[in-house]
Amino acid sequence: MTDYLPSGTHLQNGHFQLIDVLGQGGYGITYLADDMHLDRQVAIKEFFPAGCLRQGMNVVPGHTLSPTRFAEAKQKFLEEVRVLARFRHPSIVQVYTHFEENQTGYMVMEFLQGKTLAEVVAENGPLSEKDAVRFIDSIGQALSIVHKANIVHRDVKPENIILCDDGHVVLIDFGLTKQEVADTKGTRPLTGTSAVGTDGYAPPEQYSRNTQFGPPTDIYALGAALTFLLTGDVPLSATERAAGEELPALRERNPHLSPAISQAVAQAMAMPVRQRPAQVELFLKMLHSSTTAAGLQKSSGAHQRAQIALGKWQEALQAVQQAEQTAQYPLPLPDRLIVGVEEAWHHLQHADWALLIGIEKEAEVARDEVIALAKNELQLENNRRQQLVKQLQQTMQALELERERSIAQLDATKEPLIQAATREIESAKRKIADTKGEVGRSRWIQKLIWFPSGCAIWYILALIVGAIREVYEAAQFMSVWGILELLAVFLGWRIAYPLASYFIRRHYGIDPHIELHQRIATAERQIENAKNDNQRHMAEIVREFADNRQILEQQLDLALENEGQMKRALQSLNTGG
């Protein structure tokens, strides 16, 4: 089973997609990958030390590496990544982030497009003294920063120095900056590389146990790397020199080199640590015996270009701040893009030509990244706000349709009620017209019945009174009986009329006037109630619709204003960026 993850593998929840394998060292595998979020290519180093195996996607320690040592080494790897991420120098590979997955650690770095100095020498032969010194000077300044953080690279060699397409060099592969990972027995070295470094570039102290490492360790490797660049040959290893072999002087191998260069390399590659320069800066001063006017002019032009690039970087940050105010939306940017410009301005004051080129490149990349991140965030938020505007507009359309449907339902409910009541009124009116004759006749019949029935009742009452009068005639209550006779006449007429009315009602069933007019009044009230209820419900619908529409219009106005702010913010970035 291969140690490599297959092409197309996704890491960190799809944030990165592997493309190809760039290489494998004693401590890990480096892949070329796509950053799916920022649309750029990156290099990802997977912690995969010697003695490990792959089970599926996971990395596990093999028989020669205990789980405890693997866990400790992985933790040191991640700590080292965090340290490297703090460095801001054009000749130190830039670390973007790190994460843990597949039971191991990963470091995401910038992808450098170029060739190693080893490949350049293999293709074109030894370099000129001017180019070789310039490259070593850039790497030396980068190591100076690393040494101030109490870190020693311990594997400086042409294979770990990338000559980028823009002409600046970058030091990579800090894999030996910590204690070796694999157990002493069973270590699996690569060709020419072991857990102590690389033969020809590693000083003698790297072959010893319990040895203190410091800047002189990397200075020895710098001298050896410069030797290879100028001659095309790997120097003798420290073990060979310790066995008695002499290291040839640099000028013996290339007589065209300056004495200062030969002397500086000889001192940097001294076997005893105390005989080497204590700091990288001292070694670099030995390489530069003088500075030509052409060099000063070249540095001056590079300084001016670096200033312009840094100015654009700052302008991009200011454009992002302006875009934030315009859009009223926070645009998160990594701290390295904000703090980095201040650090770059600081380095600018004391930078040589190579560092100035690096600062210029870094500023251009950072400026593009600032604008790209801000534009991406603004575009995402703008799309969200546009979607909100569409949703609000669709909601308003749906509200208008609902209002029309509710009004139509009210009209459909009202019409049957009104039509039924109208039919009732028409029916009652027809009945009134049809019964007018009968009503007239019933009144005459009532009167005809009333008069004779009254006379009959009076006569009966009069007979009763007369009979009583004869009984009590001796009592001589004449005045009282006269009154009783008058009362009998009154009662006769009063009793006769109800009797006549009762007869009429029994004959015709109902009083047509009262019943028909009541039916008409009831139907008219139904019509009026239907109209009032319809108007009331319609007014409630209109009022509720107006309230909802007002709220939606306010939300839509705010959404349109926010959308306009986003567009203006994007325009300001396009103009200011």
As a percent range, the share of strand residues is 5-15%
Q: Sheet bearing the most strands, described?
A: 6 strands, antiparallel
Domains (count): 4
- Counting DSSP H or I runs of 4 or more residues, the number of helices is 13
Helix content: 55-70%
Average pLDDT rating? 77
Through-space gap between termini: 49 Å
**How would you write the strand order of the largest sheet?**
1-2-3-4-8-7
Q: In terms of per-residue confidence, which ranges show pLDDT below 50 for 5 or more consecutive residues?
A: 178-195, 290-297
Written description of the protein model:
The chain has 13 helices and 13 strands. It is rod-shaped and about 185 Å long. With 577 residues, the chain is an alpha+beta fold. The chain has 4 domains: 1-111, Phosphorylase Kinase, domain 1 (2-Layer Sandwich); 113-290, Transferase(Phosphotransferase), domain 1, CATH 1.10.510; 299-379; 385-572, no CATH class. A 6-stranded antiparallel beta sheet has the order 1-2-3-4-8-7, covered by helices on one side.
